[in-house]
Amino acid sequence: MPNASPRAPRTKTKPATKRKTITVPAIEKTSIVKFVRLLPATELPRYTHVPGTGTPHPYRDPRGHSFNRKPVNPKALNEDRWAECRSYLLGLDLFNLGFYWEAHDEWERLWRQSGPDSMVGKFLKGLVKLAAAGIKVREESIHGVRRHAASAGEVFADVAAETDLERFCGLKFEDLQFAADRAAQLVYKPDLQAGRPLRVFPYVLTPEPMPLM
Question: Residue 98: pLDDT band by 50, 70, 90 thresholds?
Fold first, then answer.
């Protein structure tokens, strides 16, 4: 009887693995939609200041974009009337457009006027820290980015716990904490053109409802 031809080895079929569904927070989806300025009639600086890169200091240098323009102290931010606060909205526009030094400057003055120890002041401190993280990205200081972003996240978590609110001054705490966490985790491109405003974070801070200005 002739020898039977050898059988091909059986291959084990692996059970199909289920794909994980990744939920993208609403704040990150905003990066793919058209950005709408809150104060479209306001003139923007001709560059963004990045310390240590040769850009003129906005106030001290005669070449600065705000030289001889004394900063005006804004009115304090009111939690219930945030949509009427020009300084707050301007800071959001500047942040979302990549003017991180200018956003930091605007929000810091508002923070001082609103009372650093008030609930609004604590909230603004978180935004100041988030803008500082953006500045550190432009300075290519990843340690500074992570330090300021982590501090911003802690501030937002504390204010959320103290107020027991979902949204504050138009912004969701969940989105703000995600923004801070994301800022600390990202890898950023080096050698960005000094002075050119660039959004380095994959989201924009959009208050709701949108104010009518």
Answer: very high
